[in-house]
Design a protein that fits this description.
There is one protein chain. By secondary structure, the protein is an alpha/beta fold.
Length: 390
């Protein structure tokens, strides 16, 4: 019998019991909302197990920001919670719950201080820590224009082809275009959700979210089954900003939520970039204001993005130049003579051209014949005139 086949007489292996700290953090992710600074300050002083026990006992002396009503709110949520069930639920979905101290934990999230996630629920393939090391956020308006969707898709595809991981929020508009752009070229993308990783929101992006979970990673601070609300979207943005090397805003109105991601990225000393749009479009007004205020650097393609967020000297964008014209190839002294030759019908004699160029008449005459051979000038009697080149 093949040794790789399971013995039907033996019971199936059961998953290992989660360690107490992971269980406690899973429970805290149910008790508190993302970015809860009170719980964050608490976790800097105590292990999560001790924090949970203190909430149960109501014994939380001298904790900054923790008043009676807040403690009562935590305690009211305790009954009926089963963190082991949540952990098993995400495991069966092919995911895991990552906490600080795990090898997969992205240490850059620690820059959020007391607002650092308690843990991250994830599904998908690859190490979150390693993928985040070379990642860039592409965000923007949900109600984007065709121009914005095109730019976001092209930019994300170019970034993915350069080996960068594209991070966004899996929402409609720019987010969806960014994910699709990366997926279209076989790239890696991460969707940061404002709901549980087993909840497809928005419904219209259900297939896209499924594809991200297969080809990339889905992650959330919220435990399985949790649904989004307005505040959770805003809080989700800080994770996108902290996780990545930089944030690109493709389209955003003046009051767009995408601008909160950009501001967070700037506050965290991450590179903040913006793509300009039509000056007549309200969906680009927020990006233009961000660039104009110095809060973002103007970028137009992936090369300019990677020059900012990539390794020094290794990810330089190519120098942008116009077309090389024939006169650009002339030696400086020859070009100097050509500048002195008028394009009028009567032209000018050599003596006048010598005065104009500041060169000896003999040298001017020599250069004029060189220019005539190249088709730049022509002689009419004693006068020379410039020939218009197409």
């Amino acid at each position: 019998m093949n040794r790789m086949m399971a013995d039907p007489q033996q019971p199936l292996a059961t998953p290992a019991e989660p360690e107490p700290e992971r269980l406690a953090r899973a429970l805290l992710s149910r008790l508190s909302e993302p970015g809860d600074a009170v719980v964050g300050r608490w976790l800097r002083q105590l292990a999560a197990v001790d924090v949970v026990q203190a909430i149960r006992d109501g014994a939380v002396p001298d904790h900054p920001g923790l008043d009676g009503p807040r403690l009562a709110g935590y305690q009211a949520r305790l009954p009926g919670l089963d963190p082991a069930e949540d952990l098993e639920r995400v495991r069966l979905a092919g995911g895991r719950f990552i906490i600080p101290g795990d090898t997969e934990w992205p240490s850059q999230l620690d820059d959020l201080g007391d607002g650092r996630p308690i843990g991250l629920w994830t599904t998908g393939t690859g190490s979150l820590r390693l993928l985040a090391l070379r990642s860039v956020a592409v965000v923007g308006s949900r109600a984007c224009t065709a121009y914005g969707a095109h730019v976001a898709g092209e930019l994300s595809a170019q970034l993915a082809e350069r080996g960068w991981v594209v991070v966004s929020g899996a929402a409609y508009g720019i987010d969806a275009a960014a994910h699709r752009g990366a997926l279209a070229v076989g790239g890696m993308t991460i969707g940061v959700l404002a709901c549980g990783v087993d909840v497809a929101y928005p419904k219209g992006n259900a297939e896209l979210i499924r594809r991200i979970g297969v080809q990339g990673l889905l992650l959330s601070e919220l435990p399985p089954g949790e649904h989004p609300n307005r505040f959770r979207f805003v809080l989700r943005n800080r994770v996108i900003a902290a996780l990545t090397r930089g944030t690109v805003v493709v389209e955003a109105a003046v009051r767009s939520g995408a601008l909160s991601t950009a501001r967070r990225a700037r506050d965290l000393n991450r590179h903040t970039m913006g793509v300009a749009g039509p000056v007549t479009s309200e969906f680009s007004a927020g990006v233009h204001a961000l660039i104009r205020s110095g809060g973002a650097t103007l970028v137009t393609d992936a090369a300019e993005v990677t020059e900012l967020i990539g390794s020094i000297g290794d990810d330089l964008a190519p120098q942008r130049t116009g077309p090389v014209l024939p006169r650009d190839l002339l030696e400086p002294v020859v070009a100097r003579v050509l500048e002195a030759v008028p394009a009028t019908a009567e032209g000018a004699p050599v003596e006048r051209l010598a005065r104009q160029s500041g060169l000896p008449p003999d040298e001017v005459l020599q250069r004029l014949y060189e220019l005539g051979s190249l088709g730049f000038v022509e002689r009419r009697g004693a006068h020379w005139r410039a020939v218009r080149r197409r």
